[in-house]
Design a protein that fits this description.
Helix content is 34%, strand content 16%. The protein is α/β, with parallel strands linked by helices.
Length: 362
């Protein structure tokens, strides 16, 4: 039976963190932060990226630090604007192979004319149009990930056959701005479909998150607003034909734990303070643990995505303070339940749409 779209959270608490390091181009500091997050058993870490600012390519950084980590999910931002959908899906699938099933993809769009001029192929488009395109890219990626059946590889040296061509499929996808014939050049990823993450804060992205995301991020300064956003996303997912329980909704907060064990900054009311950049929490790790526990217990969110103001300092206090307290209270796991990001999130591995059920095989 399909759950009620507004059903309260009864599942495990999920935690993720951003490990962005502006101005840092070496891989080692990113790997250090990812390992710190892994020590706290966080579901995944994200790496931001944009054509609007200089910095290392998030997808390449994730691939570089994958061998240095063993369990934490790796979710780089990859824009769907000005990029080739075929190449994007292949790169994300490759990251899933390199990380042995821990890859995700934070979908982004490029809105400015300055970014468009970097490529010179088209002008900047309205936000709504860009997110529609992002949804089509997400759909095409899923088709391409399924274009290889799980047992398409034969690897028979004696006969010289590497692939069963009957188990490779054209996708023949046509969108508003691109078309893809397929199949992919990368075998089906270990997770089937790497985890897709969408920041659903802006209205144009909500429908895309509800239709295509495994994880949606919402920026809310109160449990009430987070609950309303989660209920809206679940309702949209149900209307699109999805089981809303296959969508994890995480509250996205910027956290400043420079106050050590001090109480939350006056004016926060024990919670986040709305700002132009989104909700910001300033206080100590203990109070943050209380906020996380309260919001999750109330059924407002499935978890939190936290962006440290000072990456090393705040992530260390988050893991050693906030997460340790949640673990001590039995509210957050002390070890990973599996090896893939989908297993961390409690999400099933999607069946390949071309696979023939065992009972129907001749």
């Amino acid at each position: 039976m399909t759950p009620s779209p507004g059903a309260p959270c009864r599942g495990a608490l999920h935690l993720a963190a951003a490990i962005d390091l502006p101005g840092v181009h070496e891989a080692a500091p990113y790997a250090e932060l990812a390992l710190l997050a892994e020590r706290g058993a966080l579901d995944f870490v994200t790496l931001g990226d944009s054509f609007a600012r200089p910095g290392p390519d998030a997808l390449a950084v994730a691939a570089r630090i994958a061998p240095a980590t063993g369990r934490v999910g790796l979710v780089p931002t990859v824009t769907t604007t000005h990029t080739e959908p075929f190449h994007v899906q292949a790169a994300v699938a490759t990251l899933d192979w390199v990380s042995r099933g821990r890859a995700g993809w934070l979908l982004g769009v490029s809105e400015t004319e300055a970014e468009a001029r970097l490529f010179g192929r088209r002008r900047a488009a309205p936000r709504e149009e860009l997110w529609r395109e992002a949804g089509e890219v997400a759909e095409a990626a899923a088709l391409l990930w399924d274009s290889w059946e799980d047992d398409a590889e034969i690897r028979d040296a004696a006969s010289g056959r590497f692939i069963d061509r009957d188990k490779l499929h054209h996708v023949d996808f046509t969108g508003r701005t691109f078309s893809v014939r397929g199949p992919s050049i990368v075998p089906r990823p270990p997770q089937g479909h790497p985890v897709r993450v969408v920041d659903a804060t802006v209205p144009a992205a909500r429908e895309i998150a509800a239709r295509h995301a495994d994880v949606a991020l919402v920026r809310a300064a109160s449990a009430r607003r987070a609950d309303a956003a989660r209920a809206e996303l679940r309702a949209l997912a149900a209307r699109s034909g999805r089981d809303p329980d296959t969508l994890r909704v995480l509250a996205a907060l910027v956290v400043d734990l420079g106050g050590g064990e001090c109480a939350a900054e006056p004016g926060h009311g024990g919670g986040p303070l709305p700002t132009a950049e989104g909700p910001v929490y300033r206080g100590g790790p203990v109070d943050l643990a209380e906020l996380i526990a309260d919001w999750h217990r109330a059924g407002a969110v499935d978890g939190f995505h936290l962006t440290p103001v000072e990456p090393r300092r705040d992530l260390e206090r988050l893991v050693n303070g906030t997460v340790a307290l949640l673990q001590h209270r039995g509210l957050f796991r002390t070890f990973y339940p599996g090896s893939t990001l989908r297993e961390h999130l409690g999400l099933p591995r999607p069946a390949n749409r071309h696979a023939v059920p065992a009972g129907e095989r001749s």
